[in-house]
Batch of 4 targets.
Target 1
Amino acid sequence: MKFRKIVSAVLASVVAAGMCAANVFAVEDGEATFCFDTEIKSETFQSYGSVEQAGMKLTHTTFESKNGNGCIIVSEDCSGDIQQQYGGYFIDASCFGAEDFTSFENCTIEMSVKLCEGAEAFCENLSLYSDGTIWLTQPATGLSTEEWSTVSITIPDGANNTTVGFTIPTFKTYTGNIVYIDDLTITKPDGTIMENIGDYQLKKMVAEDTVSTGKNIGMTILLVVLILAIVGGIGLIVSSALRKFS
């Protein structure tokens, strides 16, 4: 009986570890279908619903990213008096131009999200969604201004859903940036990731991220002087000790 309990506990631990590993899985740099490292093509992401009334916009920035050289910023200029409170941006399966890919059935879609400073109370409606045969939605919860979070949704078998996208973050009165979005990934039914659309760029190092050659030389000289001073100090201590006991 005790042996059975031990085996059950071990199996439970293995399953829990596997679930944790699955939860922290993330694509590597450049692997995402949409890396958002370049300007967004207007024909790729289409708007619907109350996007215009909410003043929702997608802009590209190189000052923030999870991977690569940039991401998109979702912003709003919302007066708060919108009657039809729905809408967002979406992509259609046809945008990939593949004859054998006509819907997102059995695909998993995920995106990385990070809150902009000061927008913590204005992201209550942001969700990843898919539409077609059935409407599916996955709210983006527990977001942070410090860490990137991953939101994902899987389209079930038999669901001929042709669109995926994300909704308007808020309908409250608000003007400004709300969230950063990076690495939107589409994993196909066979488990492979839909290849990048061509918007990946390796992250560029700016002046603030690099140390000048002169500063490197100065630090090297300082380090050498410090080492010599330490060695000299040790030598003096040893010499003094030898004279004392000789």
Target 2
Amino acid sequence: MITTTLAPLVAGFAAGGVLILLSHLAFRVGAGSGLREIDQLHFFGRTFSRRESRIVGILIHLILYGLAGSAFGILVQFGMLAHTVLDLTEYLLILTLVFGGVILPLEGHGLFGLEEDPWFPVDLLIANAIWVILFEAILRLMV
């Protein structure tokens, strides 16, 4: 059985993977455009192709989702959050503010970069809500 410290990390990765799969499927079946690519990815002086950039983006988002799951597990262990609907809703709002206010602008989207459509904050909130639901469901299966 997985420990209670590792389970949230794995559940975060798993929920993130499902969410990434759903976002790619939705894009393919006509849900509209995803995040627009601003420019090519440069990392340690190397320029990545569009395909490599997509893979790196997926890996970064999986890591972020895993860290978000791990952070929730840590907050539960310190007694700051619990597995209740109210606490999960609070965590949903925290995730949306951190991802939309810090992570996406660092990637060049949103506040300090390429402006998205007016529905982007709502899309982000819905995506994070789906992640929280998947995360809690997967975590309950694991522990």
Target 3
Amino acid sequence: MNSIKGFAVTQTNPEDVVSNLETCCLCGARLRFSHKTDYLKMEVQEEAACPDCGVKNKVANFILQ
């Protein structure tokens, strides 16, 4: 394992990373994402929820570029 700036770096397949972000950590179902865009503030709020078990992720805020 290599180290960059003190963090361990592993070779990870990009498809595996996307799959981990899109699946529920409890039941493994595909998450449903909702986005709210505020064009005046140039922000997007993203929330993910699992339709099977009801788990919701923390709302993430992103800046539009």
Target 4
Amino acid sequence: MATNLLPPTQKQELKTEKLRQKIIFILFLILADLLLLMAIIFGLYVYVSKTDSNLNKEIIQREQLLKDPQSQEIKKTIEIANQDLYKINSVKKEQVSAVSILEKLNTLFPSTAYLKSFSFQNSVRDVKDKLASTTQKEFFGKINLSGLASNREVVLSFKKSLSQELSFQDVYFNPSSWVKSVNADFITEFNFVPVKK
């Protein structure tokens, strides 16, 4: 109510003064916000610089550790072990499993016969691919076995079973296997070539 008694020029000066105070207050808030933002950015910069510096120190330490003769020796040992494992794996892939041969023979071997001897040897041969005109290595197993069957017909049946099995190739029975008609001793040899799936 007291402002109503003032002359219009003073009223205008009062309004201008209040507006000026509001503007100064807003500018002060903006300045405070800017200072706070700059403080946060500076804090982040210091933190990132310190972290980066620590990380660089750690990288340099690790590089020096890797250049250490003991580390180089460990690295060489690991490389040699990896090469050995690769060679072992390669040889393992090239070998035919005797277990798979015995599993197949178990299903084909006559129940009225028994096995006297069994020998197995991994082998390799070059096989020409007629379509591609290339030569590939084929890994197979050579099997020699001898046994005693109740009679010659059992030996003949066993020979037929072996010949019909795709994995068994070049089946050969020694002529002496056919001499006895009862208690027939037999000797056979054949190759086991795993069927590719």
